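Study this:
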Amino acid sequence: MPIERRNPEGLHATPGYHHVTVVEARRLVFLAGQCPLAPDGTIPPTLPGQTDQVVANTLTALEDAGATPDDVVRTVIYVASGERADLSAVWDRLTGSALGRAFSTASTLLGVACLGFPGQLVELDVTAALA
């Protein structure tokens, strides 16, 4: 199924994502916010470790739905920090991961005050489209 990614003239340049993602899908996949919880319920103590666990969890959830990073049409990344350096570090780690292709579509990166679990620093919201 073709996914059309566009950056219309008149909008700012992006660091890899596209402003507009267009798809005609027969099936949509909405993942719950993927948290950095390991299967045993623990959360890695560092921002890079949490980002890696979010990637692993998201890949597992996508696979369960029969989807891959290439099928992702929208992401929203939440980072519990007001520091641009932390947001940039998460973006760079995500785009350099096995999930990286997912972030070439419509993506939003937000710094937030708090996430759902004690010590949680990263969460990822993903939508995929399947033929």
Observations:
- The beta strands are 3-6, 20-23, 27-30, 72-79, 106-111, 122-130.
- The radius of gyration is 15 Å.
- The mean pLDDT is 95.
- DSSP finds two helices and six strands in the chain.
